Amino acid sequence: MTALKDLIFNFNLNKLGGPVAIYNVSSQAAQQGLPAILSLLAMLSLNIGIFNLIPIPALDGGKIVLNILEAIRRKPLKRETESYVTLVGVAVMVVLMIAVTWNDIMKLFF
Hints:
The protein is mainly α and 110 residues long.
């Protein structure tokens, strides 16, 4: 619970790792053997599952929020509205992916 609270209230982009960080950790795990690789795969799978529940409209968590909103309103959202909200969510995801990858590259070279 403390980790979740820290993630929400003490968010720090430097703590996130993208594809470059995953590559580095994967190469280290490969040198340590099969148990380390399997542990890394399990951790990555769990992280992807948790990340997918973040309430960003392009993700499942966002869809859950939209469904709750529809249940409260007792009528579905207009397709145009849902499409716009999803597009904004995709834009947020793209910006986040670029920022995390840039951060990884900066850590690697500086």
